[in-house]
Design goal:
The protein is mostly helical and 77 residues long. The protein has one domain. Helices cover 70% and strands 0% of the residues.
Length: 77
């Protein structure tokens, strides 16, 4: 998975002052969610569980994620 590359890029941008640290953390979290969702779609049950846990831990971002990633909330359709 390319999440290590994304994390390194995000940290580099944050160090350069291009992004606030909270934006970097949110970008990394969203990249992880995308990766877990992709693995879950391919049948990885552990990825499905981790994806669900991360969604549940970040309830404050649900509205934004519903708008950007409707497929993540398939059970609400």
């Amino acid at each position: 998975m390319g999440s290590k590359w994304l994390i390194a890029l995000s940290l580099t941008l944050a160090a350069a002052g291009a992004m606030p640290a909270t934006a970097v953390a949110q970008s990394v979290r969203e990249a992880e969610l995308i990766g877990f969702h992709q693995l879950c779609e391919k049948g990885d049950r552990r990825a499905c569980v981790r994806f669900g846990i991360m969604i549940g831990e970040n309830r404050g971002r649900h509205e934004e994620w519903r708008r950007l990633h409707r497929e993540w909330f398939w059970w609400e359709r």
